[in-house]
Amino acid sequence: MSGEAGYPSPSTAAAVPGQSNAAQHGGTQYITGGGDVRTVNVFVVLREPPEDDDRTMPAPTRRERLRRQMSRDVRAAAREVITRQGVEALTLAEIARRVGVTPAALYRHFADLGDIVRRTARDIVAELTDQLREAIEGERETDFAARLIAPARVFRHWALAHRQEFRLLFGTPTVAAGVTHTDVTAEWVRHLAALWGAEHMRLWAARPYPVLADDELAPRMRRQIADYRAATGVEMPLGALIVMLSCWRTLYGQVALEVFEHLTPLVSDQEPMFELLMHESVTRMGLGAEYRPPDGLGA
Fold this sequence. Notes:
single chain; two-stranded antiparallel ribbon
């Protein structure tokens, strides 16, 4: 095992991106821009064209303002259906009824139902990542454990309060989402990699911990994790990336069990288990002594 794994020293990796939609390293931006499609073995990462930036564009015409308002209304209606009935209930007819237009009118603004799902999911991801970012920024920069655990707690609370939205983003593909489910997945992969990846890189740069060396990894795993690193720009040794992805696996697994109520008949209060897993995760990175339980956990 190694704290370096043949990788550049932490001091050379200290240039960590700020909170943005993409992680950067060595002057190369991996996630935003483009328009191409990149398929990697761990995730599919689709590069989206940048959204229009009102600050660099002339004032919109009345027609453009109406078009944007219609887009917002349609996405809001879709979100309401998803929240109240689930994404399976989402149809063009139902959205059109709520907005007060004909289903055919929606095609002047969206390619199809999948396009509405994609853009609505993008709104949800933006909402979630804003909350995660706020949780991170609320902790001291030197409190590495808190900056990893605080957004994990927010993610859990958000998922339990928005179960249908969690199902859309992180659950089994649905008929309404169709082939756009890959796009939906890519959206949260980009954003969560930018948020948590930046914090993991900061920790590694300041306090590297023991990880598996590259030659200790199975060849298939080595290739896949290297692909993930190239696609997301989370520049750490492969072994450290495995630790980061293992932390996500732990977080997602526990939250999914709660959202889908798989343990509810036997374990009604799962916060203690969640906190135990958070303690174990940061301990793996040498931060166990810095873990602080939330107020009231021992009650």
